[in-house]
Amino acid sequence: MVASLLLRGHPLIRLGLRNRGLCTGILQVTRRSCCTAMPASTPPGGGLSSAENTTSVLSTTDPPKYQRWDEPGYRKWKNQEEEILSDIDPIISLTKEILHSNRYVDGERLTFEDEKIVVDRLLAHHPHAEDKIGCGLESIMVDRHPQFRHSRCLFVIRTDGGWIDFSYQKCLRAYIRNKYPLYADRFIREHFKRGS
């Protein structure tokens, strides 16, 4: 920006202020105020140590960005967050292992134990569980998503031979909203990629 002002013949340069050293002072103040947020009353030569400069930047009148641990609402939120995480962590770990390890190959049905956990802890909480199950649940399968071939997901295999995918994250979000209604929105916003 400074170079473009010099090339275009800025009015300060045309007035000859450059030769008196004023242009240098203006550039230093402008540069310093943009880069280090020094107060406008600071002389062009400096004047504040880096510790004083940091203090002046941090001592704004805005409220702190993050709540403090000693605030009752924050402690309550952190305790609740920890409870939710400990509640859902086992099913998340199992689901990720099912989807992302060599435990199951594409198109393979889950074992009886894994299927029972997935149905009870996930599918039962899906917002459209009845539609997913349809005429009846025969089993749960792992396979590639028909549209997103790089993604593996869980499928409901119905008693009539049809099958449909379901999102384990939708199941978890619905579970959290039902069990922890006061903290669900914040938890989902902070811990899930998509909060829908």
UniProtKB/TrEMBL annotation:
Region of interest (Disordered), residue spans: 38-71
Principal subcellular localisation of the protein: plastid
Compartments where located: Plastid, Chloroplast
GO CC annotation: chloroplast
InterPro entries per record: DCL-like
Compositionally biased intervals (Polar residues): 50-62
GO terms, biological process: chloroplast organization; chloroplast rRNA processing
Keywords assigned by UniProt, alphabetized: Chloroplast, Plastid, Transit peptide
Name of this protein: Protein DCL homolog, chloroplastic-like isoform X1
Encoding gene, per UniProt annotation: LOC111481165
